[in-house]
Ribosome-recycling factor
Amino acid sequence: MTTIPEITKTMQGKMDQSIAAFKQTMVKIRTGRPSPGLLDTVHVDYYGSSVPISQVANVSVLDNRTLSVQAWEKSMAPKIEKAIRDSDLGLNPASMGELIRVPMPPMSEERRKEMTKVVRHEGEAAKIAIRNLRRDANEHVKRLVKDKHASEDDLKRSEGEIQKITDRHVAEIDQLVHAKEQEIMAV
């Protein structure tokens, strides 16, 4: 049988995972400057297997407008270049021997506003996930009370604690959304 502290600890762990997943999503959302994590979603064919670029090449920031992709095998460079070009990121890589330069096109004001909407939408989805975890934890505690394994006082206390944890995680998502919006809107 689980206890109320175990329930809240499990819920908090899952909420932390939700925030980590949200941060991963934020890395992939393009701002004006390049980030090696931008290419994490791009997969390339490597001897019959579809693998992320980071497993066949070194991705780094060349300057404040360019990523460089250094293929570990010469034969992979054209495949990597094609995979980046075919991705939905809107990037146009240029091959220079073994090195592939990926210039980041400057973002228009309209595109920046679109990206902030995407960030807000992702933030709302993350908050919904956290609220669902809160609901599940509260239901679990209510089940304990119903089965006479916890008292009504325990229920009230745990609901307050669960709400505090939820509020803290929602506030963290709001901060991350705000910071990403500032980053996108900065020229």
